[in-house]
Amino acid sequence: MASLTEDDVPSAEAAAYLRGYAAAWTRRREVTEARAVWSGPSTPGTPSRATAQVLMEVVGAAQHRFVAVTYSARWYAPLTAALSEAVARGVTVDIVMETLEGAGGLLSGREPADAFSRVPGLRLWHWPMGQRQTPGGRLHAKLAVADDRVLFLSSANLTAAGAERNIEAGVLLNGGPMPGRMADHIRELQRRGVLARWPGAS
């Protein structure tokens, strides 16, 4: 303000400048940067942001909150390491996954929740059968959100196959309102009890 006084800038002009500056910063927060993510065989000109690379970047970007939703999950060492580091730096980590019961025989082996048993401190969630309004409904979403500002939507499950071996497609969104809206939706489902803590989870 001292420089405005010294330069004899009219109050109306100074106010207009400040309003414009504030509006520019507001628009900057609303701007979304979108990038395609592909895994599998490449072709000339295809964006080459691999699923595994982007997933680790999103986990690494989280400073306060990280949430991921997946249908299937299997232990995947790079993801386990990234989640462990996030918890260690104080990030609240929520993982929402399907269950063997919920999958109705379409998943086999160990529970998806077992994929995260080596990461103490994260919170596991599921969609209880009693909360499913339609018989046969499944938790099939795959996404990850870091700090309500980075959103990764993908066809890939949280498995080594999904991250490294399959043909998978997704989009990475940085900024804008969508990451926060998606995270808010998940939090509201948790608050309402539509999503519940996995039995026996810490």
Overview features:
single chain; 202 residues; alpha+beta; 8-stranded mixed beta sheet; 7 helices; 8 strands
Report on this model:
There is one protein chain. The chain contains seven helices and eight strands; from the N terminus they run ααβαβαβαβββαβαβ. The protein is an alpha+beta fold. It has an eight-stranded mixed sheet with strand order 1-7-6-5-2-3-4-8, sandwiched between helices. The model has no long low-confidence stretch (mean pLDDT 89).
Short description:
With about 200 residues, the chain is α+β, with helices and mostly antiparallel strands.
Low-confidence stretches: none
Largest sheet: 8 strands, mixed
| Radius of gyration, CA atoms, in whole angstroms | 21 Å
Record the strand order, biggest sheet: 1-7-6-5-2-3-4-8
Question: What's the number of extended β-strand segments?
Answer: 8
Give the proportion of residues in helices: 25-40%
CA-based shape: globular
The span between the termini is 52 Å
